[in-house]
Every structure is written in structure tokens, then in C-alpha cells.
Amino acid sequence: MTPLDYDFLRKLLKERSGLTLSTDKQYLVESRLLPVARKAGLSGLGDLVVRLKGAGADALTGEVVEAMTTNESFFFRDIKPFDQFKAFVLPQIVRARAAQKSIRIWSAACSSGQEPYSIAMTVCEALGEAPRVDLKILATDLDSDVLARARSGVYSADQVKGLGNAQLARFFDSKQEGGICRYVVKHAPARLITFKQLNLMHDLPMRGPLDVIFCRNVVIYFDKETQRRLFQRFARLQRPGDLLFIGHSESMFKVSEAYTLIGRTIYKRNEAPP
């Protein structure tokens, strides 16, 4: 892959996914995109770039972006935000929405589904499996393949490590497939979630308002300007007082004035300027 090929791929990935790659990440691009090139019957990344520059390359471009997007996830990742959501955030929202009895939560960049299912399980633990509020969780991701896995709600024994026996028994059915144990999310948490494909770099189609947005371990891969634009879009979907969860390695410092930090990774939507 030539420097010009790498520069083209860097620009393409930033435009389509927000992913910002430094000049020293060529090895990462090669390791992830060579299988894409071979699957397309191409000899290498140089030919892949030629194909991407040609007409009718939308499907191949989608494969490239999905291959480069990190899809690491597990249940109750960084447990503290879920503890805070259960103990403080959810009861507060239920009281605030007592009249409307409608709560909307968005899990952005949900990957293979562990985050939205963790949110749904937390809701069931806090409010019961038949909550008296109209609570819905929207889970979105750019990658159609991981969304399909998320929608199935099927996980391996390794993927449910860390969950307690009580949680496994309450929220999963186990089944044997060819001698391998699989865990399937039960109806009670699964029914709360709707999965949709969505590119965070595009205009957001939802109308809001959204009581809570989870966008954790996502913007760490974006440059500051891309982060700023994304948080502006989020702010338009939330009312003053609505909450945004981000990752423990992420910050809004000098990025957005629309939110105020109120917890380790929790931000509150500020009052709109006059």
C-alpha cells in the first residue's frame, strides 16, 4: 500500500465513520482490510483503493468501514455507570416523567448488543419486568453484521463471563448447539430494545427528546471537531436536565458547552442559551 493509498483510506474512513487514524496506523489498516480485499477477489490494498474510487463501490465501502470499526463490548462494561443509572438516574427519571409515563433511552454505537441488554436488565432489576412506564431503548450501530448478532440476543459462555448466576438465570435461557452452550436473552429485557443501523456521522433521524443517551467508548476515536459536531447533534435531541453517559477515558472538556459534568462519566444537558 502506497502512502497515497493510505491517505485516501484515512480520508474515506474519517468521512464515513468519524474514525481518525494517525500516520503510524498503516499496519492496522493492512491487517483489517487485506481480508476485505481478498474476499472481493483483489490482490491487495492497492487494488482495493482503485475499486473504492470507482463507480458502484458503496457496498465495498461499507465493508471497509465495518472492518475498521472497533466492536469490542461486554456486559456491564465499567460497572459503575450502570450502578449509578440504577440507583440514582432511573428513579429520578421515573419521578420526572410520572405524568407522561414515557422514557426514551438511546445506546449509540451499541456493537454486538451487550450495552443495551445491560441497560434493559438494569431497568428490569429496578422497575420489575413489567414496568408501569412506556420505556423504550433504541440501540444503533454502523455495522450491520454486529447488529444482526445483537438482534439475535445469542451469546457464548465466554461472552457472558462476569455475569452472576442470578442474572444468568433471570435474564437468559441456555441451550446446547453441537455440544456448545449458548445463552439467549429472555423476552423481558429484549422486548424493551429496538435495533437500528445508524451512522453517527450522518444527520440523526430520531426526533427526541431522549431522557438518556449512552455513547461510551466511541468519541475517543474521533478528533475534537468531529466530537464537537456529534455532541451538538445529541444536545438537539435532549431537554435541559437530560443525561449523557460517555466512556471513562473520554471528556467534554473544551469540546462542548451544552453539557455539565455531574458524575464520573455522566453529563447533564444545560439550559439552552437565550
How many domains, in number, for the residues? Answer: 2
What class do helices, strands and sheet pairing give?
A: alpha/beta
CATH architecture of the largest domain: 3-Layer(aba) Sandwich
Order of helices and strands: HHHHHEHEHEHEEHEEHEEE
Provide the spatial order of strands within the biggest beta sheet.
Answer: 6-2-1-7-8-10-9
Poorly predicted runs are none
Helix segment tally = 10
How helix-rich are the residues, as a percent range?
40-55%
Question: What's the CATH topology name of the largest domain?
Answer: Rossmann fold
- What is the straight-line distance between the termini? 52 Å
Give the beta-strand count: 10
CATH superfamily of the largest domain: Vaccinia Virus protein VP39
Gross morphology is: globular
* Largest beta-sheet characterization: 7 strands, mixed
What top-tier CATH class of the largest domain fits best?
Alpha Beta
- Rounded to an integer in angstroms, the radius of gyration calculated over CA atoms is 20 Å
Into which percentage range does the β-strand content fall? 15-25%
Provide mean pLDDT, rounded. 90
